[in-house]
Design a protein that fits this description.
The chain has 404 residues and is mainly alpha-helical. It is built from 17 helices and no strands.
Length: 404
């Protein structure tokens, strides 16, 4: 059995899972309006609930699926998850009520929590010298999924808000058939281990925070900054529809444009920025850029200007890797794994909280209850949160080992 085909299945699985997060964004306003028959402001509230349910299920079940794959094998877990993704997309396409939509997002979040399992399968079938490059392929597949997901949803959304889900179901089914015929079981008796609930605890990373001395303020910064950043997936589709009258295709274009710019910034800009400014100053500059663009998006009234600013807004994303670099240098070499576990937990919790907060603010400022009409209010909140992060960073005395 040739190795390229199993690797292709794993990469397609990661890509499809990533698309599941972003594909629904362009059609969410139209889909919720069709199902609820309520104004856009109220539909946005339900959009926040659906996004939070998806993120919470991924957070809750990611460690569980990974541990199940250690006990029962990667093949059954990955094939079962792809079968559920196929059925879940059909449920989304046929959903006629909020309850069905909610159930579909819960099921989709569980089925898409397979990133760790896919990475483990790839590690099993890779030689030691291949692992780093293959893990890079997993990251690239996830990034491509986030880029083409909105395009996929936006372009197909012109045929109705349910069309993307039929196409995604067909893609998941095709990948399931590919995996059934080409994916070997990679867990051998030598590496198989018993299932233990304590290892599947998603809060394990949070429990480790107390062990990371000297990082309290920086962990608060990254938590607040993540909530601010997640304003984009939380309300961008509703904001574009309400403020500019964009349809699903334009929303898909704008999200894909941001995703592409974000990927390029992460790949090409972080290293030279850190070399030029140092990690701490790069964090401050990145957060400052984020704050500026959040303010502009909060008050902009031109859709053309917003579209031009969309890729430029990704420049602020240099802050995240630089901040991780600061924290990585602060802890010892024997705590690097603990740090990454904590950061993953913090990121997941922020992704759960942000949609609820941001959609509530969008609803309040577009429903007629607020003293002013301001669809961009969530971006202004993100700007305030980002400025608070800058204050916390400036108040933090840099460690002697960190080039400021």
């Amino acid at each position: 059995m040739s190795r390229p085909l199993p690797i292709l299945f794993i990469l397609l699985t990661v890509l499809i899972d990533s698309m599941g997060v972003s594909m629904i964004m362009p059609v969410m306003p139209d889909l919720l309006a069709e199902v609820t028959a309520r104004p856009l402001a109220e539909a946005a509230l339900w959009g926040g609930v659906l996004s939070t349910a998806f993120a919470f299920m991924q957070f809750l079940f990611g460690p569980l699926l990974g541990n199940l794959s250690d006990r029962f094998g990667r093949r059954p877990v990955l094939l079962a998850s792809m079968l559920v993704v196929f059925l879940d997309n059909l449920l989304l396409a046929l959903a006629g009520s909020l309850l069905m939509l909610f159930a579909a997002r819960v099921i989709g979040g569980i089925a898409s929590a397979t990133h760790s399992t896919a990475s483990a399968a790839l590690a099993d079938m890779s030689r030691p010298e291949e692992k780093a490059a293959n893990f890079g392929l997993v990251g690239a597949a996830a990034g491509i999924g986030f880029i083409i997901g909105p395009l996929f949803g936006g372009l197909l959304g012109v045929w109705g808000p349910r069309a993307p889900f039929y196409a995604a179901a067909a893609l998941a089914l095709a990948n399931l058939l590919l995996g059934f015929f080409v994916l070997p079981e990679t867990v051998t008796e030598r590496i198989r281990r018993p299932f233990q609930w304590r290892r599947a605890n998603p809060l394990g990373g949070i429990r480790q925070i107390g062990r990371l001395q000297g990082l309290g303020r920086l962990l608060v910064v990254i938590f607040i900054a993540n909530i601010a950043f997640f304003v984009y997936p939380a309300i961008w589709a509703f904001f574009g529809t309400e403020r500019f009258g964009w349809d699903s295709r334009m929303i898909g274009y704008s999200l894909a444009l941001y995703g592409l710019a974000f990927t390029l910034v992460q790949a090409l800009a972080v290293r030279p920025m850190v070399a030029w400014l140092g990690e701490r100053r790069t964090v401050i500059v990145g957060l400052g850029l984020d704050a500026v663009f959040f303010v502009i998006l909060g008050i902009v009234q031109s859709g053309t200007l917003a579209l031009v600013l969309t890729p430029l807004a990704a420049l602020g994303s240099v802050a995240g890797p630089a901040l991780q670099g600061v924290m990585s240098r602060t802890v010892g070499d024997d705590q690097q794994g603990e740090l990454q576990g904590v950061l993953m937990s913090i990121n997941s919790i922020a992704l759960i909280i942000a949609p609820l907060v941001m959609t509530q603010i969008f609803w309040f400022f577009t429903s007629g209850l607020a003293p002013i009409y301001l669809p961009g209010a969530p971006f202004l909140l993100s700007a305030a949160l980002t400025l608070a992060c800058i204050v916390l960073i400036l108040a933090e005395r840099p460690a002697g080992r960190i080039r400021a």
